[in-house]
Amino acid sequence: MFQHIALVALVVRDYDEALEFYIDRLGFELVEDTPLDDHKRWVVVRPQGQPPTALLLAKASGDRQAAAVGAQTGGRVFLFLHTDDFERDYAAYVRRGVVFEEKPRHEIYGVVAVFRDLYGNRWDLIQPS
Asked: Which CATH number fits domain 7-128: 3.40.50.880, 3.10.180.10, 3.40.220.10, 3.40.50.2300?
């Protein structure tokens, strides 16, 4: 049996501002952007390198979803972005205006630093040991 998580839904305020952040700042690629109706689109992005998991950027609908934008995990690190070259990606992200909460640190599992996306969701950028 082979299974993998294909998509993780990330609630966003606006499709286009989310695309600007994930494509222009993080360097993700656009997989799909299909209009579903006058208000909804099926928007999928993923890190470079053809990994199996991607993000479905889901525009918040209603007060409950709007309140979850940026806080889907109650303040915990939400997503873990692995890299094969921490220094390269860290420097590129800083140049593009990505806000890191801390300086890079060496842990038993690798080099890591926490950053926030445009909505405040916390991410780990990690180069595993």
From this structure: 3.10.180.10
pLDDT tens column, 9-21: 999 999 999 999 9
Contact (Cβ atoms closer than 8 angstroms) between residue 72 and residue 11? yes
What span, in angstroms and rounded, lies between the C-alpha atoms of 113 and 67?
Answer: 26
Q: For the chain, which residues make up each domain, given as ranges?
A: 7-128
In total, the chain counts a number of residues equal to 129
H helix intervals, the chain: 15-19, 62-68, 86-95
Phi (first) and psi of residue 35, to 5 degrees: -65, 135
DSSP state of 37: S
